[in-house]
Amino acid sequence: xxxxxxxxxxxxxxxxxxxxxxxxxxxxxxxxxxxxxxxxxxxxxxxxxxxxxxxxxxxxxxxxxxxxxxxxxxxxxxxxxxxxxxxxxxxxxxxxxxxxxxxxxxxxxxxxxxxxxxxxxxxxxxxxxxxxxxxxxxxxxxxxxxxxxxxxxxxxxxxxxxxxxxxxxxxxxxxxxxxxxxxxxxxxxxxxxxxxxxxxxxxxxxxxxxxxxxxxxxxxxxxxxxxxxxxxxxxxxxxxxxxxxxxxxxxxxx
Length: 254
Ligand code: GLN
What we know:
By secondary structure, the protein is α/β, with parallel strands linked by helices. 29% of the residues lie in helices and 31% in strands.
């Protein structure tokens, strides 16, 4: 854990409604195609909704904090996944416990794969996952690259950018995040994208995901606030730019 959390105070004249403690997993090795923007979006929206934010990071060999309200993690190359695999397996029980307790989490691409049971690389080596999501990934013959648009039962249209070799299949214990309207998603075949269990979302969508999809960001924050008995009473935020960015990205060819 980084020595002290970085604290961003809430905006606005009213007293803070509380503090949200966000943990970013492996920013050193797993942070690609703008995934750090997810953390920034969560931090800013927390401030705008009247909460102080405490940001913590966890890299190989660090100690996990005792308590967190929200966990985020990004994607990375196969080599980054190789670097964190041992450490991730060692903290797997803690992460699974938090997930079972309802801690909201968002993991993208490389960490999405390793939140599943395993990722078998193109060279045939197996990178073990932590089995938090009932999903399994095997590298395919090519890469699935480009803008992607989903229909999500919870969030409506979700827009992002995918770039992965892994083909992910869900088991019965995971729900997809959405169905693919354009793009490839989990495997390019069954029309599913991402995986959900408890309050955990795994997805291939970089971009980063949250600036263009504020409904997903606020859903994560709502879960974080209500986790410890708080009441989610969001303040109005002007999301015109986010909607515009989402529409432009959705209209771009692959
Ligand atoms: N290495 C993984 C794959 O290509 C993850 C890629 C990523 O996180 N962008 O499937």
